[in-house]
Amino acid sequence: MRRSRPLIAAAAVSLLALTISTPTTAQAQNSAPLQGFLSQQLDKLQRTTVLVHGTDLAAANAAVAASGLQRLSSYDRIGVVVVEGTRSQILAARTQPGVTYLEGNQPIRVSTQTSHLATRGAEAADTRTGANGLALDGSGVSVAVIDSGVDPTHPFFKKADGSSAVVKNLKIVCDPLSETLCLPVDAGSLDTDLLSLGGHGTHVNGIVAGRKVTLADGTKLQGAAPGASLVSVSVGAALLIVGADAALNWVLENHAAPCGAGVPAAKCPPIKVTNNSYGPSGGGAFDPNSATVKLQRALAAEGVVTVWAAGNDGGDGTKSLTNPPGQDPTGGILSVASYYDQATGTRDGQVSSFSSRGLNGTQATYPDLSAPGEDITSSCRIYLPICTTGLAPLDGGNYNTISGTSMAAPHIAGIVAQLFQANPSATPAQIEAALISTTHKYTNGAAYETDSRGGTTSYDKGHGLVDVVAASDAVR
Predict the structure, then answer these.
(1) Which of 77, 104, 131 is a domain's end point?
(2) pTM of the entire predicted model
(3) Listed residues 104, 131, 151: the one ending a domain
(4) Do the Cβ atoms of 369 and 466 come closer than 8 Å?
(5) 305-309 and 333-340 strand pairing
(6) Is the residue at 2 inside a domain?
(7) Is the pLDDT confidence value at 151 over 70?
(8) Do the domain assignments include residue 3?
């Protein structure tokens, strides 16, 4: 039995009316392209939020000033300014020198007992060591989890010395009226996972790096990388792309020292991977011009892997339903399908029925690989909405069992931390190559076909089920 995955929808917008001259026909012919979602918004709304992309930050800022748009924030490293304005102002900005693309504030949603036997993760931790000489548990690596938030005081995150595995706890706070001006705030030890979809982020963080625990009934649990550190970046429950991009932008600017330059890496390791268990409903086309893609490509260039949940829209291969940014062909950007071991811990289970499929014959839309995502037990709180929908509350509701590609992606994020511990000098592309070249070829679902990158893949499960032992050996 599985519970349904929740959806998050509509954006709040301001309806203030301002005027500015409409571009001439000649100007329109030289206009920067509009994202499809934004084009639809302009036909419906008087005023909306836009990401103005420039050849550089100066060009984007100049265009914003010239067109009268209200500047909210910026992603400086990729030359994008977040603004708010009217239809006529947005169309005027299209014609300004150096503007390359205009993107809307698209709504997104979260994609909602870890099976370390099926992934051979437990075996890897028991039989392999990292470059630091410690058991292969992700130690020395931080994973940034961009999600609804985290309860850093949860017992699943309690380290042997009593401190929390959550070394940095941020909340992206957006303007309550427009939900567009989004800035990071340090939340310290506060629980940031208390909104309408509270519990999702705490569950996901536990799958990444929950510490080894034995509950009162004898149940033993741990995360994929029980030695890794966690950087939680809460984007709340009403997910919009500007808030999520603000989180990715923070990681881009701070991954080398997420707790600040004065905090040693031994206490707060560099971020080497982000987990992203959210996306638009129904998948969509890959947009190489989006801020999300520019940010994740910049992260890959600086040595950080980006992991995406493939989505929970199922499908039969007749169209692509996978999460668009996960379709990025850049090395080190991974899309994860959900594998179900049928509660056996074996490696010959099935693709979860809810796991989003790519378009049969168009390999760019396929997931990259599979990881356990069905009936996954991890940290929860009984009073949080997501946690009350689970299958089997344990330990007074501190743990629960939930399904979704949201649960598959953090398995891979934790495993990536293990691979970086095995080889700290590996590139994101090398990490991806090690993962997809060593997968277990479980046979349920669509047939495998030759992949242009090497090996074989399928539109429903990608290259197959992750094998941590084989991948850690391959990346050294």
Answers:
(1) 104
(2) 0.90
(3) 104
(4) yes
(5) parallel
(6) no
(7) yes
(8) no
